[in-house]
Design brief:
The strands form 2 sheets. This protein has a 7-stranded mixed beta sheet. It has a 4-stranded mixed beta sheet with strand order 1-2-3-4, with helices on both faces. Strand 3 and strand 4 form a beta hairpin. Helix content is about 35%, strand content about 20%. By secondary structure, it is of the alpha/beta class. The protein folds into 2 domains: about 50 residues; about 190 residues, Rossmann fold (3-Layer(aba) Sandwich). Helix 3 runs parallel beside helix 5 and helix 5 crosses helix 7. It has 11 helices and 11 strands. It is globular. GO terms for molecular function: methyltransferase activity. This is Class I SAM-dependent methyltransferase. Pfam families: SAM_MT. It comes from Thalassorhabdus alkalitolerans.
Length: about 260
């Protein structure tokens, strides 16, 4: 990884880039007039770019950069404001004041909806194993403005932690979060979704393990939720009860603590 800025970056953005380079102990490269293709060709490694209005990660083997944008979450939030349904909210049984642990943050769409639904009294912690992705998303959550105060505040309330989920879960007390949520990476959906392509080279592909689910069941007070492809064997393998939707490639499954699944 190297750190640079956009060609038009202002002084404070140069300072931000230098800070990240020092934090991660990686090279800071003064951009000058170099194109991104030239930087990727010269260094042959990912490039973290601090721009005036966003932060992006370019990978030598990907055409498009990774960056935070809450487009889908914002559309879902608007539907919730119109009293329309959200499958994730229903599957998780999300209510105001709940605490949620999102074990696989990615672009943070579900973390945002969880925070939006849980409100000011709720708590959402989102885990991301890739520290560079975590940084880009954290910046976006704090700085991106939708024009809707409640949505922006929901983004800003999310606590992003750089960690793999098993290690983090092992450190938590039993029943410390109402909801523990898993959304493991699945290739078919990524291949079909252009906006997810940049994740392919950056995301962690650690499979959901029995240990992770057991720790999730211990840490969750209400339920553990799994999002996966509709025909995924993970639901049966780990004891989730799937909630399938007609004509959808995605399904949610739950393990209810109150039903004795501990």
């Amino acid at each position: 990884m190297i750190i640079t800025t956009s060609k038009q970056a202002k002084g404070n953005k140069v300072q931000r880039a230098q800070y990240l380079a020092d934090k991660w102990e990686v090279p800071f490269v003064i951009r000058k007039k170099a194109s991104m293709k030239a930087l990727l060709r010269e260094w042959n490694q990912p490039v973290y770019v601090v721009e005036n209005d966003t932060e992006k990660i370019y990978h030598p083997d990907e055409e498009h950069p990774f960056y935070f944008h809450p487009s889908m979450a914002w559309l879902r939030a608007k539907r919730l404001l119109n009293n329309e349904r959200d499958t994730f909210v229903e599957a998780a049984g999300l209510q105001e004041g709940m605490s949620v642990l999102d074990c696989t943050m990615g672009l943070a769409s579900d973390s945002i909806i969880a925070s939006f639904s849980a409100g000011e009294k709720g708590k959402v912690t989102a885990l991301e194993g890739n520290r560079y992705m975590a940084e880009a998303v954290t910046w976006g959550l704090k700085e991106w403005k939708s024009g809707n105060e409640s949505f922006d505040e929901a983004c800003q309330r999310i606590n992003v932690v750089v960690s793999d989920h098993v290690t983090f879960l092992q450190k938590q007390q039993s029943d410390s979060f109402d909801i523990v949520y898993f959304d493991p990476m699945f290739h078919e959906t990524i291949d079909a979704s252009t906006h997810l392509h940049p994740l392919k080279k950056l995301a962690w592909y650690n499979d959901l393990t029995a240990e992770a689910v057991e720790e999730g069941k211990r840490v969750a007070k209400e339920r553990v939720v799994l999002k996966d492809e509709v025909h995924s064997p993970r639901f049966h393998l780990h004891g989730f009860t799937p909630r399938k939707r007609k004509s959808s490639k995605i399904a949610f499954g739950t393990i209810e603590k109150k039903e004795g699944n501990t």
